[in-house]
Every structure is written in structure tokens, then in C-alpha cells.
């Protein structure tokens, strides 16, 4: 018995999403972007209060790093299973519930009385955030046309960095004035309002069922988890993009987690000033992510291979500039290089997501974005800050941050490998979708 892959809840699958009004599309984007900012406000406020926690609880750098990495670890482990649940239960309802969980868990962080309690509360922040990026990206991919995909997804993902900026700034300012506990309360509460509004504005879409069609008989059956997995990992370029993106995402993760502490220790800044300077670097990373995807879209319009080669350049520049910035003695030049390196640190975000969507079947798009989130968290976001913390306990924070950007060179290598098979993989998927639509 032979099978052909098809999409079927309503008949033939359209390769383009349903057209929505520009006003509605951008309202969906604004709310989804806002919740992504809240997500990362909750996730990254810890970086601003780490110097205070170290003094109050006499923690090692590796223990501080655990408070950062546990969120990414939980997100990485749970993002795919929770995304599958979200696809079945509904993305809008799932997003609303997830937002309530991470906001309430963030407030609980401010009530912790020990490192262990804070670690558990941070784990629940990760539980709430686990599938938000995937569900939000799937909604945006449905509302906006494919020609805008890299730019829109890049802008959406940039909310993670702008949220991180606010988390660091607000956390540092509030901690300096009212204590570190109040910092968690201040960033956790606003997301609750967005969570209340979201389901009253955003309409979910009917899940496109990925089925196996029995040729000759016309009958269809839902694909098994193994068959879905084959689709998600079918393209060589997609698999390489998962690895490349994961390695590169260690760069913004380590900058967000450790720059406030770095500026306090090596530049003699107070907590508030160190957080503000770190926020400048994170803001630069957010700007890079916004424009990085759009630049790749434009440059790859006539030469599709540049879709993967452009992020390879971003990664190489990140490594070289950050290594120089941390190796130099503290000063204006070193700080300028750190900010410049941050500009390229996350610029590949939209490119990687678009590559993965381009080379896999639309019927597994939510699972693909979840898989990208898994790779980002397990390969980069979780290990990056922890590796720096462990190295810092042995070598000192300055040398640890000088060595760590070598991971970006590895990311550049994998992006180059991605470019070698991207065109063929994307063409294969376009042909399959056209065949199903016909």
C-alpha cells in the first residue's frame, strides 16, 4: 500500500495563508509580540539581580548560572510535547494559559527564601514559556504571507531581546531601589493584563491535518508521531539549521545573563548602572535580529543560497568581535566591541526559522518551529550561560567570556553546510505542495 503526504481538514491545501486585513494582522502581531516581551521579561530579569543574590546568599557563579539555564532547559525539554498539545487544544487558548503560568511563576520567584526555592520557581517560569514561541510563530505564519515570513518571524523573535532589555533595566532599577524581590513582582504582573486581552482579539485557525493518503483509494489517515518526525527531520538543510541556530543562540544568552555582572566586577559599576549598560548590548542584539532577517530576505531573492550564507557571516562576525572585546582591558574600545558583537549575536534568528519552514511540509510547521525552539534552548540558551558560569569558577569571568564566543564560529560552519543543500530541499517541498494543491 503506497501513501502520499497530504493536508486535509477541508480539501486541497493552499500554499499561501488565508488573506487577513492588514489591521487585524498587525493587531495579532502586536499582542503576540507583547506577550513574547513579557515572556523574556520574566526569563531575563534574573541577570539584573544576580550580583545581589550572590552577596545575599553567598552563591557560586555556577549556582547563579543554574537560575538562568533551568528556564531554557525546561523550555527545551517540553517545547515539542506542549506544542503538539497546543496544536490540538488550540493555539490561542494555549497561549493564554501559558502566559498566566509564567507570570504567576515569576511573581513566585520574588517570594523564594532559598536558592532551591528560587530554582523551582524559575523551572515553572520555563514550564509556562515552553511552547509560546512555537505557538506564536505558527499564528503569525498563518496570518502573514510567505514573502514576509523571515522579516515577520525575525521581528517577532526580536521581542525576546527587547523583553530581555526591559527585564535587565527594570530589574536593575527596581532592585536598586526596592530590593530584588520587588524586581520579580514588577516584571511578572504586566503580562497578566495581556493574557486577559489576547483571547478576545486573536482568532485561532483550524489545524491543517497532516495525513497519509492511500493512492488509488482516496482514503486518508492521520500520520503517526514517527511519520511526523520523519517530515520534521527530512531535510538535511533543516537539520543543519537547527544545530547552527542552537549554537549561535548561546551568544545572546550568555550576554544577557552575564553582562550585568561583568560590568559590576570589571568596570566598577553599581547594579543599576551595570544593568543599563548590559541593556544597551541587548538592545543592539534586538536591532540586529529585526534587520537581520529582512536583509537575508532581500539578498536571497535572486540567490537563494544566501538565505543560509548571510547568517553564517553574522555568526563569524559575532565570534571575532566578542573575543576581541572581552580579551582587551576594560575600557571604551572594549565596551564598543562588545556592543558591536551583540549587534550580530541574534541576527540569524529569523533566517533560521525561515529556512526550517521553507524546507519542511506546511502540515508540520508548528512542530518545526517547536523543534527550532528545542534546538535553540538545549544547544545554546541553556548550556551557554552555564558553561560561562562553570568556566568562571575556574578561570574568572573575563577569560570565560573571552573563550565562549568560539561557539559562534561553529555556528558559522554549520550555516555554510546548510547553504549547500537548502535550494534543493526548498524546491522539493514546493513541488510537493503544488502537487497536493493540484
From TrEMBL:
User: Which InterPro entries does the entry mention?
Assistant: MFS (IPR011701), MFS_dom (IPR020846), MFS_spinster-like (IPR044770), MFS_trans_sf (IPR036259)
* Membrane topology category: Multi-pass membrane protein
Family annotation (SUPFAM superfamilies): MFS general substrate transporter (SSF103473)
Q: Which UniProt keywords apply?
A: Membrane, Transmembrane, Transmembrane helix, Transport
Entry's localization field: Membrane
Major facilitator superfamily (MFS) profile domain sequence ranges: 27-423
Report if keyword Transport is assigned. Answer: yes
Question: Transmembrane residues, as ranges?
Answer: 23-42, 62-86, 95-113, 119-144, 151-176, 182-201, 240-263, 275-296, 308-328, 334-356, 368-391, 397-418
Q: What is its main location?
A: membrane
Name of the featured protein:
MFS transporter
Amino acid at each position: 500500500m503506497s501513501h502520499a503526504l497530504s493536508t486535509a481538514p477541508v480539501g486541497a491545501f493552499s500554499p499561501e495563508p488565508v488573506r487577513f486585513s492588514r489591521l487585524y494582522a498587525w493587531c495579532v502581531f502586536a499582542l503576540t509580540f507583547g506577550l513574547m516581551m513579557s515572556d523574556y521579561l520574566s526569563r531575563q530579569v534574573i541577570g539584573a539581580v544576580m550580583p545581589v543574590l550572590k552577596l545575599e546568599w553567598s552563591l557560586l557563579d555556577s549556582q547563579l548560572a543554574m537560575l538562568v539555564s533551568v528556564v531554557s532547559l525546561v523550555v527545551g525539554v517540553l517545547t515539542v510535547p506542549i506544542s503538539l498539545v497546543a496544536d490540538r487544544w488550540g493555539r490561542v487558548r494555549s497561549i493564554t494559559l501559558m502566559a498566566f503560568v509564567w507570570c504567576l511563576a515569576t511573581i513566585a520567584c520574588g517570594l523564594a527564601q532559598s536558592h532551591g526555592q528560587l530554582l523551582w520557581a524559575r523551572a515553572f517560569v520555563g514550564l509556562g514559556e515552553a511552547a509560546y514561541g512555537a505557538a506564536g510563530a505558527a499564528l503569525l505564519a498563518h496570518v502573514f504571507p510567505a514573502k514576509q515570513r523571515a522579516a515577520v518571524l525575525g521581528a517577532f523573535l526580536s521581542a525576546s531581546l527587547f523583553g530581555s532589555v526591559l527585564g535587565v533595566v527594570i530589574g536593575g532599577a527596581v532592585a536598586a531601589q526596592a530590593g530584588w524581590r520587588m524586581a520579580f513582582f514588577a516584571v511578572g504582573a504586566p503580562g497578566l493584563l495581556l493574557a486577559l486581552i489576547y483571547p478576545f482579539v486573536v482568532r485561532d485557525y483550524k489545524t491543517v491535518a497532516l495525513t497519509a493518503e492511500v493512492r488509488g483509494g482516496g482514503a486518508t489517515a492521520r500520520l503517526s508521531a514517527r511519520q511526523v518526525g520523519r517530515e520534521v527531520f527530512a531535510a538535511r538543510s533543516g537539520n543543519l539549521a537547527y544545530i547552527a541556530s542552537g549554537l549561535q543562540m548561546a551568544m545572546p544568552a550568555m550576554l544577557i545573563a552575564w553582562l550585568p555582572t561583568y560590568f559590576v566586577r570589571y568596570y566598577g559599576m553599581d547594579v543599576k548602572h551595570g544593568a543599563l549598560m548590559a541593556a544597551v548590548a541587548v538592545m543592539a542584539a534586538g536591532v540586529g535580529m529585526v534587520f537581520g532577517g529582512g536583509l537575508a530576505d532581500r539578498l536571497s531573492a535572486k540567490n537563494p543560497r544566501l538565505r543560509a550564507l548571510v547568517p553564517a557571516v553574522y555568526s563569524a562576525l559575532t565570534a571575532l568581535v566578542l573575543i576581541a572585546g572581552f580579551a582587551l582591558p576594560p575600557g571604551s574600545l572594549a565596551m564598543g566591541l562588545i556592543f558591536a558583537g551583540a549587534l550580530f549575536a541574534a541576527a540569524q534568528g529569523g533566517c533560521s526559522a525561515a529556512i526550517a519552514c521553507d524546507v519542511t511540509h506546511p502540515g508540520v510547521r508548528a512542530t518545526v518551529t517547536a523543534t527550532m525552539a528545542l534546538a535553540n534552548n538545549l544547544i545554546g540558551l541553556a548550556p551557554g550561560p552555564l558553561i560561562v558560569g562553570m568556566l568562571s569558577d575556574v578561570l574568572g569571568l573575563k577569560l570565560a567570556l573571552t573563550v565562549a564566543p568560539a561557539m559562534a564560529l561553529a555556528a558559522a560552519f554549520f550555516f555554510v553546510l546548510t547553504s549547500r543543500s537548502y535550494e534543493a530541499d526548498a524546491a522539493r517541498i514546493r513541488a510537493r505542495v503544488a502537487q497536493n494543491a493540484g
